[in-house]
Amino acid sequence: MGNFHEITPSELKKTSFEMIGKDWMLVTAGTKEKVNTMTASWGGLGVMWGKDVAFAVIRPQRYTKEFIDREDTLSLSFYGEEYRKALSLLGSVSGRDRDKIAECGLTAVFDGTTPYFAEAHTVLICRKKFAQPFAKESFLDPEIITKWYPDEDFHTLYILEIEKVFVK
Description:
The chain is of the alpha+beta class. The protein is built from five helices and ten strands; from the N terminus they run βαββββαβααβββαβ. Strands 1, 2, 3, 4, 5, 6, 9 and 10 form an eight-stranded antiparallel sheet that branches. A two-stranded antiparallel sheet has the order 7-8. The relative contact order is 0.23.
């Protein structure tokens, strides 16, 4: 695990607004044979069902969604500004088409069977607890659909129990 140490979710120093909205995050799932990842800037952290959780949303066409749906666990990892170029690449090309992880220079490591990247400053190891596609009829503000879903490619919401938090 290198120079990471484990803390509890309540010991995180940054807010989810900083971590997800400003730092960007990678959502990563897979096996030691094949890992895929994607950038994300939507989601959150909170409490649900008496557990510390993360909320992530993934569009149906994303290749990483296949990995998330197949595995029980995944990681959310966060990076400093020096990794912005690598994260931009990871968000702009598909792992279906090329080995974008090798291209960006990040190092995949594992906590048990859950992949994450050694270059992160913070890693959440998460277990899926809930998955539900957004439904058109559930939107109370139709402008959200107009602005964010003109093709009606609604995200799936994942509620993820945070099992471990690693920080540098």
